[in-house]
């Protein structure tokens, strides 16, 4: 890369040229970051110059409206849509003049792109960065149409769809691209768009799609060779390997079979030219027929699968394609004894190792896994080179690309480590399989250095990332790169260890006087172990409070917490151990109070699913530092309960805060407090769950002072900095309130009337109404005169009363059992 041109240092405004699915969603995600975006597309064919602006900008305006209704949601909050200005290439190109970054995302056609660049150059600022979102065309060929001085600020930015949710961004420079320009976009996309940024060489399909396409094509080849069915391959290539649970073909339907075919054909057209050793892998005939028939997946209603209504429990019934006859038949649940055994292994590395050790001679699953994984190892290893012919410079780029672009839990080299490099390679060699040169390099190094069990990665607490990787070109282990501010609890534990732990949680020293309470039970369900550790750690007399100045509650898992341990609760209810239920609720309340009244500030950093009790922990903290992708909700009513750990209490306090500027109505009651209470009542009664941290603010689960982290890898650091800042400002723990003005019986009566109306209209069931009335009771302070001062413990007692009463209801017990069985709520 060249270093001659210094681009604009800050991205303040962006233009996206091309309002198709990818372009419009890139624009939406930039708007999520709070930046204004110009979204332009062509004037529809046949529309004259004298036509109205809406007619001439029909494509961009249509895409803009589509973004507001998109599923999954393109915006964190719909309010961000105001930042997008739609237009067209002919009338509005001048609007790019004040844009710092221009992203081209039009059709994959060299001539069309070159023609658009000619228009762009008439208006683009000299220091603005221009990138292309091509997934197939060579960046060097696209750069050929640009003046020399512009080439320094031109390169590829390959987003994955949908851009809001898919973390990978591949940056593809040309030989003339300025390193400074790459750094500017890399920094912006990391910090503001939450991207995991990987640099790829300018080779076909770059890194992720090169390896991903091979993996999919090879799975299809093996299916045909071994006469497996589509649903069998999906079962084998899903969660068992740490890959998306959809498996190969269901994922293809979701992405679009035409999209997968486009990427595959791009590879096919250049495979021989670049000397790819698996140039023989091509789209099979049955998929080409599907493309001709427009069986493109979910977008056309059928692909590898076709919906055929719903079952008795509301789940989609699907028929599956028979790839040999191209007829659809009812999908069957595959049975593989090897997979059934593997389900008992929670650790993905250990599970994959077990799968690969199966007897391929006698077991159908093992027979599939051996070539699938070993050929993946070889193919991935061959994509790493110190020459420009291959896309990746290091194995770290490959693993990062596959984890964040294809949502694999482990990259190919991490999978290789899991199954044992030496033992697997020796078995491959004995079978006459080709061995990659980079694998031979690792084994040669290991033999010279007496390493019996060599691995691509080694833990090393002395480097920021916590591990090193083997570089075959220098024959040495180098630190895995880690951008400043990115880390994880697992990485920190390697260098600082664990202060204390039990089965559900640990206390970890983050440094600088801040400790983390890490949740690590299954799905982080809140059982007695987590409740006990949090309570004991945060109480004023604890050793940790004496030794640390602030705390963070977070974790490394996919979800912060799915709420209370329902299985534990149901078993206790079924045994009619009511005193035990009461003690459990009191213990949970004591935990949330410990969070709130801890002498040290507690910052909760939630992410993924944060439900029920997870929300209650968050509500009681001094501050919150959520990840942008946050699915947060008090969902207890879905299982026939109400929040019992102080959730209603804290939402009532928020209602009162919202109504502090008292504007009495004709009866002298606060309109603001009533409206705020009503809103919070609806949120709890409907078990509303946010689809982002921004939306969680609107539901009053977060405060506007709670900053949001977009890059998941930065969450621990950002939460630690927030906790440290609160401590440095001179933190004083709140004092339990005894003067809370309860909304009381008049607001309670109004809310109960609303519940009655819903029941009369048959919008809710009798049990829904009973649960909702208990929510109203706890959220208003019960049957007291409006404005009666009550204490926090009084409100906690109301919650516990309601929770225990509902636990005794048969319909609540049925709901809990149903949710545990299906993962869905029961309307009874």
Automatic annotation (TrEMBL):
Record keywords: NAD, Oxidoreductase
Domain Enoyl-CoA hydratase/isomerase: 517-648
Domain 3-hydroxyacyl-CoA dehydrogenase NAD binding as annotated: residue spans: 13-202
Coiled coil regions, renumbered to chain: none
GO biological process annotation, one example: fatty acid metabolic process
Domain called 3-hydroxyacyl-CoA dehydrogenase C-terminal: residue spans: 206-306
GO MF assignments: (3S)-3-hydroxyacyl-CoA dehydrogenase (NAD+) activity; NAD+ binding
InterPro entries xref list: 3-OHacyl-CoA_DH_NAD-bd, 3HC_DH_C, 6-PGluconate_DH-like_C_sf, ClpP/crotonase-like_dom_sf, ECH_dom, NAD(P)-bd_dom_sf
Reaction it catalyzes: a (3S)-3-hydroxyacyl-CoA + NAD(+) = a 3-oxoacyl-CoA + NADH + H(+)
Protein name from the UniProt record: 3-hydroxyacyl-CoA dehydrogenase
